[in-house]
Amino acid sequence: MILKTERLILRAAKQGDLMDLYAIFSDPRAMRYWSTAAHENPERTQQNLDRLIAAAERQLTYFVMERDGRAIGVAGMHKTDEVGFLLHPDYWRQGIVTEAMNTIIPYLFEVTDHAQLTADADPRNEASVGILKSLGFQETHRAEKTFCINGEWSDSVYFALQRPS
């Protein structure tokens, strides 16, 4: 299964994505509001990649965003009904995540029976919060001190997007 947008190919992860994904997962800017610390080495990214490849064999719901032959991010549903996205900072503020998610969300509702999709973000991450709201997600609640990464606590704001009727 491959989804295409004007600028992107949205596809399953493959072994050849390792170094492109490592460039993202090791970048402190990209990982600033993520739920894990930046990866110290490609072996750590390989663990994520192995999980992405295995999950896609069952059902593709979490996509690699490819542009010009390179993996520039990931987006989609990564557990139960929760969606998320991570993009290399070189591609920030270009509408890429919105473009990807506007294609991925209808696909997810088509291939799953979830009544809603959910998401959480660090409330300090104004860009991600803004993207979720622009996609139609509604804030449901907030929680304090939900993640502690490298000794720094972050909070979470939770969102839901109801299945279209």
Report on this model:
The chain has 165 residues and is of the alpha+beta class. The chain is 33% helix and 34% strand. It has five helices and eight strands; from the N terminus they run ββαααβββαβαββ. The strands form two sheets. The protein has a five-stranded antiparallel sheet, sandwiched between helices. The chain has a three-stranded antiparallel sheet with strand order 6-8-7, covered by helices on one side. α1 (18-25) packs across α3. It is globular, with a radius of gyration of 15 Å. The protein starts with a strand and ends with a strand.
How are the strands ordered across the major sheet?
A: 1-2-3-4-5
Listing every helix as H and every strand as E from the N terminus to the C terminus, the arrangement reads: EEHHHEEEHEHEE
Quick one: overall form? Answer: globular
Average residue-wise pLDDT: 96
Q: What level of helicity do the residues show?
A: 25-40%
Q: How many beta-strand segments?
A: 8
Radius of gyration: 15 Å
Largest sheet: 5 strands, antiparallel
Q: Beta-sheet strand percentage?
A: 25-35%
Distance between the termini: 25 Å
